Amino acid sequence: MSQLKAIIFDLDGTLVDSARDLQDATNTLLAEEGLRQIGLDEVKSMIGDGAAKLVERATSAAGGDLMRLPEFVARFLKIYEANASCHTEAYPGVVDTLAGLRRLELPLAVVTNKPYAATMDILEALDLSAYFNAVVGGDTLPERKPHPAPILMALERLGVTPKAALMVGDNYHDVQAARAAGVRAFAVTYGYSHKPHAELGADHLLEKMADLLPIIESGFAT
Length: 222
Known about the structure:
Elements: E1 6-9, E2 16-17, H1 19-32, H2 40-46, H3 51-61, H4 69-81, E3 89-90, H5 94-103, E4 108-111, H6 116-125, E5 134-136, H7 149-158, E6 165-169, H8 172-181, E7 184-188, E8 204-206, H9 212-217
Parallel strand pairs: 1-4, 1-6, 4-5, 6-7, 7-8
Antiparallel strand pairs: 2-3
Helix pairs in contact: 1-4, 3-4
């Protein structure tokens, strides 16, 4: 395998725990419609496939009218993007790992299904934006993960070939997108996976983000 020249990260469930803010926005929307509130664990099971899918899942679970889904998605985005970083936090070890990777002069990117504006708000609020050379949001392209296009766009911006890159995510769509793009994939075992981690098909599982840097420093894929 060729030398590793760049790392791409998913955002929600990989770099940051955003479930509380997503829950608050979801429940604000549902309350406006007179629907029941969604619990935190329920929201975590709905995260990962973009805002529209989250709203669809929450609306369905609460017994709402899916015929009004486009209206609900637009309202959700307005609510969420105004408060995307109130409770969102970086997972333990994330900042030190990103700093260590930058010391190794590895270009880094974020590829997420979250809308770009909310992604940048979170990265800036948590002082993470300076670590990344490229950010591709869920609305940057018509396609989202598990489609490979967002990863390929990030690689193009980084000037790196797929075989020289690594994707780190927490869910099936991260691994599937990486595979489709010809990129190796690691998965963290925390986050919001919709499948057992052993079934994701990742090249390696990380119990915590701090485990990544030693692997890279030891000469992974060189």
